[in-house]
Structures are given as C-alpha cells and as structure tokens.
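Support request from a user on the community tier.

User writes: "When I paste my structure tokens into the form, the page sometimes reloads and wipes my input. The last time it worked, I copied everything first. Here is what I submitted, just in case something in the input itself triggers the reload:"
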C-alpha cells in the first residue's frame, strides 16, 4: 500500500509547474507508450507510462503475447483463469517498460451490434464484475496499475463522442455501475472515463458520477484518467474529479489533416463519427493554471490530483527507484516477462476454455483418423482480435489450417470457398494516419488463392468431416450494420452442409451473430477472437483434447428480437440522445420478461461430458451447495450457475431471474463434487431511487442450472 507520509512529503516539495507535469500527458521520448507522464526528476519521480490493452500489450513497435478477446476470457466463467491472464499481461507490460495497463473493459453488453463488445465481458453485471476483478487482481499482482474502463454507460460506438445516454438511476445502479464498483472493491488503481455523456453531461465533467459516486460513495482513492482526447473542459473536469488528462498533446499530424481536409475555409472540419478531436489537448496545462488563479478550480484540487497519481506510483513501487524494464525480452522478478512459454500456454488455455459448443449432433469430438476438409475465407490467418486500441502484434501465432494439420492423423484438404473477409480497424478511420502505416498489428498482404465455391463443395464431398471457419469484422469506433456474417459466408456454409452431413462450423465473432443455417449443420462452435493460439485451440477442442467448457456471456437471438432493435431512440439514438427505455431488461432479463425463446440463452454451452445435478441446499446465509456428478466416461468441465427469482412486490417490475453466482469445476469421469456457490447480494437487492438498495421481505427461489434456461434444481430462501 502507498505510504501517505512519504507521498505528502514528496508533494510538499513540488512546485506548481512540477505538479502540472503529473496531471497532463506528454510525448513519450521512447515512443512506445500510449500515454506518458514525464515525472519530476528533481524530486525523484520517474516517468510513468500507460499502455493499451486489454487483449495484450500494444506498445508501439513492440511484439507481445496476443491473448484471446476479453469476451472469450469471460466465456470461461472462471475468475481464477482471468487472474492468470491478467498477471501474464501485467508481467508483459512490465517487461516492455510500461507502468499502467489500460484494461480491463467492463462495460455491459447492451447493444449486440457494438463494435467493441469483443473487449467487454458480459451482459450481466455480476458476471462482468467477477471476471473483471480477476483480471485486475492479476494485472496488479505484477506491480502494474490496472485501469478499468469506460466509466460509465458506454455501450455503443456509434456517436460515442457526442451521444448522451439517457438512463434512470435504478438502471444505472443495477446494471451499468456494479462492474465498476466490483473493480473498486478489487483495489483497481485507475478508472478511465468514457467519451459519452450521461443524462446530458460528458463523463469527463460528471461531478455526480465521478466525484460523488466513484470517489466519495465508493471510496475510490486511485486516479481518474480521461479517455484519449476525451477531456471536454478544464474547469468542469477538474472540479468533477478528473485527475489526469490523456494524452495531453495533440496527435502528430492531426492539425494538418484537419486543415487539409477542410474544403472551404468557412466550413469547420468535422472529425469522423466515433473519432475524438485529436487536436484537443493541453486542457490541464495553461488553462488549468488560469482556472486556479481565477479561483474557478481550488488550488487543493490540483494537490489532490497529484496525490492520487503519486499514491498509485508509490503503491506499485515506482517511487523507490527499484523498478527497471527488461532488456531484449529478458525476464526476472523485477523486470517482468515477455512471450514466455507459460504466457503462450495461458493464451492457449483461455482460447480453448472460452470456446462454446453451441450445438452438437454427435460429430464432435472428431475421430483422430478422419479425413477433414478445412474451409473458409480466412483459414490461412489467425483471428487475433478486433480493430482499435486493443490490437496486439504477437511473436508467434497459429492459423486454423496449421492447427488442424498438426493435430490430424487423416488427410486434410483446404478451400477458401468465398472471398476473404477483410479486417477493419479504428486506425483506418483516423485522418492523420497514412495508408502505409502498419498500425493494426495484423498480417498484411496474406497470400490468398482465388476462392471457388465449387472447390469448397468438392473438398467437403470428399472428406469425412467438413470444418468451416467463419468470422465477422469489428472495430472500436464503429458498430456492425447487421448481426449477419459479412460477405458470402452464409452461402458457403449452406452449400457445404448440403454436401456433407458432418459439417462443423467454427464461428469467430466479437459478440452475437445470426446463424441461419444452424439446424442444417452437425455442430457449431463459438470461438470468439482466440488470439495467437487460434488454430491450436480450435484443434484441441475439435478433437476432444480439451472439453469445450465455455459458456455464453451474451444471449444469441435474431437481430430484431433484442430490446435495442426497432426503436431508433434506443439505438443508435435520436438527436444525440440514446434512451435506455428498456430499463433493466436487457439480455436474458429481456427474453425472460417477453417470454421469448432466444437462439442460445445466456450461460449456454454443451460439453463432451454429461453432468448430473443433485438437490441444492442452503448451507449459509449467502451460500448454496449442490452435488454435481460427471456421468460420462471422459473428464469434463462444468459451469454451475445460480440465479435468484425474487418475490412479487406490488408496483415493482423486477427481472424474473438474475445471476447471483457461478463456479467452474473440473470433474473426472464418474467423479462427483459438492459445489458451494456464494451468492452475490446484488441479485437479492433492487435499487429504489428514494430509499437506495432494498431487499424485499419474502421467499426468494435460488435456481441452479447449466444456463439461464436450463435449471436443474431449486431451493427457497426467506429474507
């Protein structure tokens, strides 16, 4: 923990210009950091570097382990595994000389079209909070500051820099704030504000949510940092509780790009939708000095800003002079660890464990000697992630074809079938980034054969099993136009399935997608964005070396059945306002409320094993225990999920059930364990705008099952 006396002594020695150097970003002389504080050499305060995540370390010009997308980590339903991934990312950040990692993202998945869903964790706040806390614990175990983002109600990329989220207090408290509260409870060192407004006020200026809720009510004592170019004002932000402006300097070439793109001097250049004005910087420089001198910002506010930054620097060993970065990828306890074998193993473990078996007619796992046709427009490149600030360049990666060829004992043939699906990236949208800049970290100029649907059909016809890899293309700063797979991939799957009854489809997507052919194929796997271990993880699950133990952290349904569909005011918004009229009824809560059957419910996922549940019983005030047996002749991993059904209360509209706890457990063949689940009190409580958190008197039903729609046993609880 930070030494308060030491921090106060350091603070007392600083001049105002020195203090200002600790609250506004500057240019990193090494050019690797996403954000940089220059430090104060005379006072023994070193530079402080912040680097992009959360799929790995995106230090400019450097390579690092490319971990699976956050939504894949969440699909494991295993905070302990998330903690391992977080620790690995923390060690890699340290190895690359970085001090803070801009991760994890814990925004609730409200809009299935959101282009950044792959960076987030869940449609449920209890689930997102638990996995997010695991990532934070891991990152900070490596003495690297974790930065939870984007605070708060940032649930779409369309108009993200201007849109106002119009949301009531109950919905904020029950859905969108809890994952951030869990992060604070986990001891997160930093919180990043979102670009959007909430009820008319930009989050960077939101005194009630940043100053009152986050800092005063929750007791957050770390520093609050703006999203990049996300500071809207000097006085409003400083008085609201903002502590650090990032990046603090205009992006190189941004001003020139804006001027050159202005067709008419009388017309003001407009930045592309979703892209912040990259010339707006320095608001915590001279303007802050003027605001303090005029009395608009109290002088003690600057001291508090600096104190919070120094507190985290001291907490994680940056003020004692002992921190050094690894050289040339070397590893030691102080310097961190980069692209080690154990990090590669963790990346592969998360990718396999996060894979969800949506359907299986018995074709999986594949027989070792089966002749396999590997088909798909992008089978010759790994799906590392989506576009934007999370893009990571690995040292090593495995394509789907390479993974299957290295595992298969039978013949492997390949066909692309249809044209390649091109990746999209935030960096392609930036007007000041040249076309030749290699900014996205993905393989460029991949050799691509001329695709032929006939070749794909012929390959499928000649094989015992056809495995079709399909993918979407998502990026920060853009939402998807549709939940349909892009290009001609649906046609490809249908044609292959009509030829080979043993067709398996492996979906790599950043969130829910529509699968119109799902009843025509033998099996469907959701692999998300698996990162550098793509092909190896796919092969391990396809051949049964690993049990498909992932579960859905989001509901899959036809596009028009989500609560954000059909009403423009709900999404993408009207006149720069998006109204959360659905209140708390998103995801599985919505489908329960509408008595509608989703394609695949929240928590769904099959296993190669078979699990039997005994009767649940309450063993403590917040604990329920249930015996679970693996009745199969092979090992498997089960995710036991507990939901709470509240009693009926006049005048109160509550979800039919809410996730209260979960536990992932490995069971050998014929093994039985009694699994104890600690229930989160969020599922018992509701937020009343007048009286705050309330637990209604009555009988609650705790439901234990394999998904929100597959309940195996129940037990009553009186409150």
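"...and here is what came back when it finally went through:"
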């Amino acid at each position: 923990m930070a030494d308060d006396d030491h921090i106060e002594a350091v603070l007392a020695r600083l001049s105002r210009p020195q203090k200002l150097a600790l609250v506004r970003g500057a240019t990193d002389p090494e050019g690797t950091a996403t954000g940089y504080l220059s430090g104060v050499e005379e006072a023994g305060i070193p530079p402080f570097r912040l680097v992009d995540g959360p799929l790995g370390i995106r230090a400019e010009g450097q390579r690092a382990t490319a971990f699976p997308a956050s939504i894949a980590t969440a699909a494991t339903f295993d905070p302990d595994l998330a903690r391992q991934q977080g620790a690995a990312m923390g060690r890699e950040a340290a190895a690359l000389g970085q001090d803070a990692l801009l991760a994890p993202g814990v925004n609730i998945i409200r809009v299935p079209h959101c282009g950044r869903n792959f960076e987030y964790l869940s449609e449920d706040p209890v689930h997102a909070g638990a996995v997010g806390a695991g990532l934070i614990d891991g990152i900070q175990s490596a003495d690297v500051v974790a930065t939870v983002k984007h605070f708060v109600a940032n649930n779409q990329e369309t108009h993200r820099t201007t849109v106002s989220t119009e949301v009531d207090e109950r919905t904020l408290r029950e859905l969108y704030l809890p994952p951030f509260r869990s992060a604070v409870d986990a001891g997160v060192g930093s919180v990043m504000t979102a670009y959007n407004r909430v009820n008319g006020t930009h989050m960077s200026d939101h005194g009630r949510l940043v100053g009152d809720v986050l800092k005063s009510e929750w007791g957050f004592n770390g520093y609050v940092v703006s999203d990049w170019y996300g500071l809207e004002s000097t006085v409003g932000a400083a008085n609201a509780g903002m502590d650090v402006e990032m990046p603090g300097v205009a992006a190189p070439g941004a001003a020139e790009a804006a001027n050159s793109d202005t067709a008419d001097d009388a017309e003001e250049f407009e930045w592309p939708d979703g892209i912040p004005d990259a010339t707006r910087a320095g608001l915590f420089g001279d303007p802050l000095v003027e605001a303090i001198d005029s009395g608009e910002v109290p002088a003690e506010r600057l001291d508090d800003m600096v104190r919070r930054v120094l507190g985290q620097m001291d907490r994680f060993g940056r003020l004692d002079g002992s921190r050094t970065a690894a050289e040339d990828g070397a590893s030691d306890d102080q310097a961190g660890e980069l692209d080690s074998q154990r990090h590669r193993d963790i990346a592969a473990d998360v990718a396999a464990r996060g894979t969800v078996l949506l359907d299986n007619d018995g074709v999986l796992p594949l027989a070792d000697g089966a002749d396999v046709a590997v088909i798909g427009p992008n089978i010759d490149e790994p799906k590392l992630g989506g576009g934007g600030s999370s893009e990571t360049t690995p040292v090593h990666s495995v394509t789907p074809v390479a993974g299957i060829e290295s595992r298969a004992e039978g013949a492997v043939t390949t066909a692309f079938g249809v044209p390649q699906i091109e990746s999209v990236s935030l960096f392609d949208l930036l007007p000041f980034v040249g076309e030749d800049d290699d900014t996205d970290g993905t393989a460029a100029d991949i050799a691509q054969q001329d695709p032929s649907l006939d070749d794909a059909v012929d390959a499928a016809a000649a094989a015992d099993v056809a495995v079709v890899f399909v993918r979407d293309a998502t990026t920060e700063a853009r939402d998807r136009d549709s939940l349909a797979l892009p290009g001609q991939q649906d046609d490809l799957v249908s044609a292959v399935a009509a030829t080979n009854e043993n067709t398996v489809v492996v979906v790599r997507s950043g969130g829910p997608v529509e699968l119109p052919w799902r009843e025509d194929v033998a099996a469907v796997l959701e692999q998300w964005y698996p990162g550098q271990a793509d092909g190896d993880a796919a092969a391990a699950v396809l051949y049964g070396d690993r049990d498909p133990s992932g579960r859905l952290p989001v509901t899959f349904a036809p596009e028009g059945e989500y609560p954000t569909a059909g009403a423009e005011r709900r999404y993408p918004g009207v006149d720069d306002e998006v109204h959360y009229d659905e209140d708390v009824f998103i995801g599985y809560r919505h489908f329960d409320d509408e008595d509608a059957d989703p394609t695949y419910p929240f928590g769904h996922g099959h296993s190669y094993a078979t699990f039997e549940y005994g009767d649940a019983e309450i063993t403590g005030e917040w604990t329920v225990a249930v015996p679970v047996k693996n009745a199969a002749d092979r090992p498997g991993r089960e995710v036991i999920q507990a939901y709470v059904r509240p009693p009926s209360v006049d005048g109160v509209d509550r979800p039919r059930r809410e996730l209260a706890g979960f536990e992932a457990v490995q069971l050998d063949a014929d093994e039985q364990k009694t699994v104890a689940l600690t229930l989160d009190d969020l599922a018992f409580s509701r937020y009343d705008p007048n009286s705050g958190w309330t637990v209604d008197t009555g009988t609650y039903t705790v439901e234990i099952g394999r998904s929100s729609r597959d309940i195996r046993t129940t037990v009553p609880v009186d409150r």
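Agent notes: The reload is a front-end session timeout and is unrelated to the input. The two ends are 38 Å apart (CA to CA). Residues 609-718 form a domain with the Immunoglobulin-like fold (CATH 2.60.40.10). Escalated to web team.
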